[in-house]
């Protein structure tokens, strides 16, 4: 093999990928069998198997027990627009996460107190084991699961205040900025880090996907005077949505 030449399994995977992209191999059609790939491309069983593994890892095909490997239907990603964090009059958590006014959203939530684990404690700049309020949201747009959001607020900040429970009380359902302002905490900065990883089984069960499908994770933290007052992980199916940030210039 000369310098720069692709390994055989990548060349085979590349050709099959192109057939999927251009529609020669249509969604829900069966991928050529290992024997057919071997014969058509003049490669070994090992090369044929590795090529199929590449396509599966890329999410282009899926295995069906006892039936074979099939081309997955690739949804056209929809825009998931994110914007500023303060809107006059306050906004719901869904509207705060999704700034596209054309999307009609609803959400389900549940809150509970727990001890902050190491990673969350580090993000909130508190000691591991300190109490936090954990709230889990499932957001839906037009009935379809759009994203999961798990937020954590230190009870040292919100405990024994009217905003201790994000979805209850006089400011229940309002954004973090408005709720914190009500107890004299002025949010002045927001940090977001965007990463990608395989979705966990419990996440994909709620989002309507298969464990291992890639998700986008937005790790978001609100600060007041340099101190974190809320941190959250927002999880979005990567094959269904494009995250778009709309940033106002002031």
UniProtKB/TrEMBL annotation:
Q: Which residues form the signal peptide?
A: none
Recite the UniProt keywords alphabetically. DNA-binding, Transcription, Transcription regulation
SMART domains found in the cross-reference section: HTH_GNTR, UTRA
- Tell me the Pfam families matching this sequence: GntR (PF00392), UTRA (PF07702)
What InterPro entries has UniProt attached to this entry?
Answer: Bact_HTH_transcr_reg, Chorismate_lyase_/UTRA_dom_sf, Tscrpt_reg_HTH_GntR, UTRA, WH-like_DNA-bd_sf, WH_DNA-bd_sf
Where does the source fall among the domains of life? Bacteria
Q: Could you tell me which residue ranges the HTH gntR-type domain spans? A: 6-74
Q: Enumerate the Gene Ontology biological process terms.
A: negative regulation of DNA-templated transcription
Against SUPFAM superfamilies, the record matches this protein to: Chorismate lyase-like, Winged helix' DNA-binding domain
One GO MF term attached to the UniProt entry:
DNA binding
Q: Which PANTHER family match?
A: GNTR-FAMILY TRANSCRIPTIONAL REGULATOR, MANNOSYL-D-GLYCERATE TRANSPORT/METABOLISM SYSTEM REPRESSOR MNGR-RELATED
Tell me the protein's name: GntR family transcriptional regulator
